[in-house]
Amino acid sequence: MLGCFVVMSMVAGCLFPFQKQRNLAQAEVRSNSTVTLRVKTGLEVFIASGFRALQGKRIGLVTNPTGITSDYRTNIDVLAKSKAIKLVALFAPEHGVRGDALAGEEVGNSKDALTGIPVHTLYGATRKPTPAMLKGIDALVFDIQDIGARSYTYISTLGLCMEGCAENGIPLYVLDRPNPNGGERVEGNITEPAFRSFVSKYPTPYAHGMTVGEFAKMINGEGWLGGGKRCDLTVIPLEGWNRGMTWEETRLPWVSTSPHIPTPETAMHYLATGIVGEQPTLNIGVGYTLPFAMAGAPGLSAHRMAQELNGRHIPGVYFRPAYWQPFYAAYQNKPCAGVQIHYTDKRKAELTRINFELMDVTRKLNPRLNFFPPGRAAMFDKVCGTDKVRRMFQQGRSASEIWQVWNADASAFRRQREPYLIYK
Fold it and tell me: Is 125 exposed, middle or buried (0-12, 13-18, 19+ CB in 10 A)?
């Protein structure tokens, strides 16, 4: 299927036809002070339109608990109650449509307990909507809050939904949401073909700096669906969002995007330690009250680790000595010593670099620690989208050398993504 085209769109995919793009953040000036108005999500724009683009249609919805309005109503409930459309099926990504499945746990087909609507799993035996799942559906709607990290599986689910829709002649509508890490942060390597997987499916940097809607347009425009397939794609855009916004500036409520991302700042921490988390040598706060915000292990010196890291003058970051005891995950019920990560300037912080600095300093403090015990190297490489990071570390190369290689693709990707950006 060819992507849909409208006058306002010059690339594959289209924007919501009757929504004109707003200029940067909405603001009004009163008495010499600037008051930022709340950003409107694609869901809210869709609701405000009276569901005009899909009136009278039978809808399938790909979502999870993050699909809410600013007053905390779920998209499932709003669409199920609407008389303008008919919600006939739900599609569950990792963690399920109601968020009741743990990380990595398969989600089964079922019926939604609150609405009775059938739920098809996209995180079980199949991860792509099948013809049987899409039967009787006029359009598929995707509404999930992502965090802007390549290894976060919702983007892979988006792409597979686009693929399934393209193969079955079903249009896909993306209800856009902000990137909580902003639209300007681009960090990391381009995934190498040999290391593409569900946690690094597309050739983008680890931090891509795009919204879900922009990412969908890029998948279509760059031909990443393969085999010449193109999805009939419509993006219902945000109103009032610009690329430099922090999550707090959107004035939108936050719902945990997965069990270990309880706050928007945790989404930043995920970029800083999520790669480290794919090896068991360091606990990164998972299993404790500060997931992804910590890094340490039994027997380390918290003060030496903090001193070493702060001495490297990583922009926008301060490392505080910390002690904790995880109640599950790595080092369960064992006292850990290490650091808590604090941001002194979120815009300047080179987040993915922190992963390699943590590994480098830990090796210096205790060279006997084994970062890649049997069975762990493969997943680390998949998350990194390459084996170069692991091999350089095992060769004793410094964090700064790894960072230079890791981040070499970022500038070229900024240019590549430009045609697909909705918000300037």
Answer: exposed
Determine the residue type at 213: G
Q: Which amino acid is at 225?
A: L
For residues 192-213, one letter each, b for 16 or more C-beta atoms within 10 angstroms of the residue's C-beta and e for the rest, the string is eeebeeebbbbbbbbbbbbbbb
- β partners of residue 297: 337
pTM, two decimals, is 0.89
Ramachandran category for residue 56: left, alpha or beta (phi over 0 → left; psi -120 to 50 → alpha)? left
Partnered with residue 139 across adjacent β-strands are 59
Pairwise CA distance, residues 290 & 51, whole Å: 40
Instruction: List phi, psi (to 5°) of 137.
Output: -105, 130
Please enumerate, as own/partner, the contacts of 28-36 that have beta carbons within 8 Å and a separation of 24 or more: 36/249, 36/251
Burial class (CB in 10 A: 0-12, 13-18, 19+), 241: buried
The pLDDT value recorded for residue 104 is 59
Which of 244, 250, 92 has its CA nearest to residue 160?
Answer: 92
Q: Is 417 helix (H, G, I), strand (E, B) or coil?
A: helix
- Backbone φ and ψ of 302, nearest 5°: -60, -40
d(CA 204, CA 238): 23
The three-state secondary structure class of 183 is coil
**For 38, which DSSP code?**
P
Which portions of the chain are predicted below pLDDT 70? 1-36, 101-109
Q: CA 207, 340, 387, 374: dihedral to nearest 10 degrees?
A: -140
Q: What is the largest CA-CA distance in the chain?
A: 65
Q: What are phi and psi of 22, to 5 degrees?
A: -85, 155
Residues 6 or more apart whose Cβ sits within 8 Å of residue 264: 180, 246, 247, 248, 254
Tokens 């609407």 belong to: 82
* Average pLDDT value for the chain: 90
Could you give the CA distance from residue 340 to residue 330 in angstroms, rounded to a whole number?
16
Residue-range domains of the chain with CATH: 14-251 (3.40.50.12170), 264-386 (3.90.1150.140)
Closest-CA residue to 295 (of 312, 313, 270): 270
Could you give the C-alpha distances from 169 to 36, 196, 223, 229, in angstroms and in order? 41, 26, 17, 11
Residue type, 212: V
181-233 pLDDT, tens digit each: 999 999 999 999 999 999 999 999 999 999 999 999 999 999 999 899 999 99
CA angle 371, 375, 378 (to 5 degrees): 85
Distance CA 210, CA 185 (A): 9
